[in-house]
Design goal:
The chain is an alpha/beta fold. Helix content is 34%, strand content 25%.
Length: 106
Amino acid sequence: MATRTVTTDTFAETVLGSGKPVLVDFWADWCHPCHLLAPVLEQLADEKADQLVVAKVDVEAYPELAEQYDVHAFPTLKLFRDGRVVHEVVGAAPKRVLLAELADHL
């Protein structure tokens, strides 16, 4: 399953109401590290589809979500479980690092 694009209208249902943990990528089109991270997140979405939802929020289009979740650097990944943030990773990281960061939460 590919990553899901989330908007202010779909955030509550897709992220906060999910029965699985949701890794939200707060990204911007002008952010080079965000583009480097995108294929890694697509792989995670496919490989961990039974355990994890991967969602993306374009902070240029939905700055209110970035503000609400205190996102100031890009990319910022926030892992939500049961409607609350349980882990955060700031900056692009290799897949093995992300898997290690997420291991305790999946």
